[in-house]
Each structure stands twice: as structure tokens, then as C-alpha cells.
């Protein structure tokens, strides 16, 4: 009965995420509706990005300079050219902004990019699974219920306007597990020989044209 009473008192937090646009370059929209009033608290979504998707740190820095997005990326430096099979997981802490249409709602969007995958046999797409974000609250001037929230291991300021870390909290009673699927186009392994042959042929033809132009129009001493 005590457990039921605590869960009833700790109103559920709703988290939804959506991929906007098409292709390899998308926008990840995260929306959170809190079960209780979080006035004066910073709200963030912590996401683990698998190797098949990444956030460009240079693009993120530009967006933050124009105050369009507030986020922290771990690690801060990542190889944006690496394919999926050479990349590693990233952790993104995305600061959410209040939604004017809903008093307990927060939202934010960040550009994400799909990495190239290995050619696969018999399929033209690979699936990248985005796990449900973890909702975090940082209340520097107010207190959260100990029955509903617990300290989280996040060593970062409450916002980009502060430099010193503060204590973040995550909900003890997490909502049902949900995932978001990103479908990434991949090449067919059966076409590897044809693609290699055409690539070599095109490369040889272009090199021949460049060499012919250099011999005809070049000035050699």
C-alpha cells in the first residue's frame, strides 16, 4: 500500500521524441510533460546516441552562439566523418525550454545526422534505435520530493549561463520504456563488385582526362 501511495503521489512524466525531416540529416524533437510543477527548475533530457547517429559539435557550437539550442555533448570532440562501425556512443544533455501552450510542458530540438553503414545482404536499410531520454531536473532554489526524485550523476551546470555544477535529479518512477527507430539507407552487398568496377572505371577516366588536359594546355619548362 505504501508503494502504491508513493506512485500515486509521484505523478507520471510523459516523454516523447520525434525525428523531423528526411534523409541523413534530421532534427530530433524532444517534448516533456512533467507530472508536477517545476517552477524555477531547469529541465533537461539526457540521451544516449548509438554509433549510427551523432550530433555535430561544430554545428552545436554555432547554434548555441545564436542562442538557438542549449546542450552539452559527451565527449565534446567526435569524428563526424567516421562510419557507423568505427564510431562510438555519445551522450547528449539537451536543455529544454518551457512550452507557452502548456504550463508543465518543455521542449527542444537538436540537429542529428545518420552515419554511413556497411552494405548489407538482402536489405536496403539499417535500423538505428534511439532509447527513451532520461528526464532531469535541477532546482537550485527549491526542493524536490525525496519520494519522487533521486540525485543523478550529472556533472554539469543547470544552464549554459552558469559555470559551476549543481545537483541534478531524475524521477524514481520512470515511464514505460519506448524507443524511436531511424531507418538509414544502406547499399546492397550483392552490388559491391559492380560498384567497385564502376568506381575504378570512373576514376581512371577522370585521371586520363586531367592528364590529357595538362599535356595539352600545360606549360612545362
TrEMBL record:
It is found in: Endoplasmic reticulum membrane. SMART domains: PIG-X (SM00780). Pfam families: PIG-X (PF08320). Pathway: Glycolipid biosynthesis; glycosylphosphatidylinositol-anchor biosynthesis. Keywords: Endoplasmic reticulum, Glycoprotein, GPI-anchor biosynthesis, Membrane, Transmembrane, Transmembrane helix. GO terms for cellular component: endoplasmic reticulum membrane. It is a single-pass membrane protein. GO terms for biological process: GPI anchor biosynthetic process. It comes from the Eukaryota. InterPro entries: PIG-X/PBN1, PIGX. The chain crosses the membrane at residues 192-215. Stabilizing subunit of the glycosylphosphatidylinositol-mannosyltransferase I complex which catalyzes the transfer of the first mannose, via an alpha-1,4 bond from a dolichol-phosphate-mannose (Dol-P-Man) to the glucosaminyl acyl phosphatidylinositol (GlcN-(acyl)PI) intermediate to generate alpha-D-Man-(1->4)-alpha-D-GlcN-(1->6)-(1-radyl,2-acyl-sn-glycero-3-phospho)-2-acyl-inositol and participates in the sixth step of the glycosylphosphatidylinositol-anchor biosynthesis. Probably acts by stabilizing the mannosyltransferase PIGM. Belongs to the PIGX family. PANTHER family: PHOSPHATIDYLINOSITOL-GLYCAN BIOSYNTHESIS CLASS X PROTEIN. This is Phosphatidylinositol-glycan biosynthesis class X protein. It comes from Promerops cafer. The lineage of its organism: Eukaryota, Metazoa, Chordata, Craniata, Vertebrata.
Amino acid at each position: 500500500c505504501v508503494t502504491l501511495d508513493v506512485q500515486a503521489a509521484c505523478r507520471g512524466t510523459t516523454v516523447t521524441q520525434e525525428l523531423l525531416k528526411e534523409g541523413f540529416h534530421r532534427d530530433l524533437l524532444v517534448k516533456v510533460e512533467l507530472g508536477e510543477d517545476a517552477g524555477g527548475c531547469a529541465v533537461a533530457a539526457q540521451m544516449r546516441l548509438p554509433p549510427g547517429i551523432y550530433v555535430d559539435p561544430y554545428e552545436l557550437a554555432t547554434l548555441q552562439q545564436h542562442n538557438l539550442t542549449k546542450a552539452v555533448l559527451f565527449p565534446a570532440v567526435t569524428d563526424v566523418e567516421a562510419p557507423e562501425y568505427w564510431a562510438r556512443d555519445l551522450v547528449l544533455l539537451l536543455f529544454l525550454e518551457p512550452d507557452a501552450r502548456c504550463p508543465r510542458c518543455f521542449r527542444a530540438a537538436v540537429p542529428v545526422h545518420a552515419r554511413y553503414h556497411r552494405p548489407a545482404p538482402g536489405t536496403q536499410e539499417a535500423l538505428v534505435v534511439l532509447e527513451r531520454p532520461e528526464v532531469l531536473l535541477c532546482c537550485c532554489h527549491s526542493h524536490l520530493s525525496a519520494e519522487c526524485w533521486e540525485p543523478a550523476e550529472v556533472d554539469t551546470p543547470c544552464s549554459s549561463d552558469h559555470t559551476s555544477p549543481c545537483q541534478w535529479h531524475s524521477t524514481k518512477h520512470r515511464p514505460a520504456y519506448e524507443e524511436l527507430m531511424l531507418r538509414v539507407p544502406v547499399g546492397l552487398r550483392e552490388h559491391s563488385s559492380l560498384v567497385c568496377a564502376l568506381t575504378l572505371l570512373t576514376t581512371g577516366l577522370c585521371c586520363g582526362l586531367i592528364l590529357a588536359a595538362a599535356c595539352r594546355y600545360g606549360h612545362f619548362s
